[in-house]
Design a protein that fits this description.
The chain has 76 residues and is mainly alpha-helical. It has one domain. The chain is elongated and about 50 Å long.
Length: 76
């Protein structure tokens, strides 16, 4: 492979990494905002207390998986 071929394929990879990282960040921030809104009953959604805690744990688990995916993406 020539040097120019390597340079042409490096830019799309970098751009796709940035797009995936930005998408993951936006998903995580959205989940955080939804979690805060549900926790403080800002959204006007009536969720029973036992389901509210389940939703919080689900959002936390998905956020941790999203952060782990971001770290893996950073080092690849």
């Amino acid at each position: 492979m020539r040097m120019i071929d390597v340079q042409l394929t490096a830019k799309p990879r970098r751009l796709s990494k940035m797009a995936v990282a930005l998408g993951g960040f936006l998903i995580m921030m959205g989940m955080l905002l939804i979690g805060v809104a549900l926790l403080f009953n800002m959204a006007g959604i009536t969720v029973e207390s036992e389901y509210r805690m389940l939703f919080m744990w689900i959002l936390l688990t998905v956020s941790i998986c999203d952060i782990a995916a971001g770290v893996i993406l950073l080092f690849r």
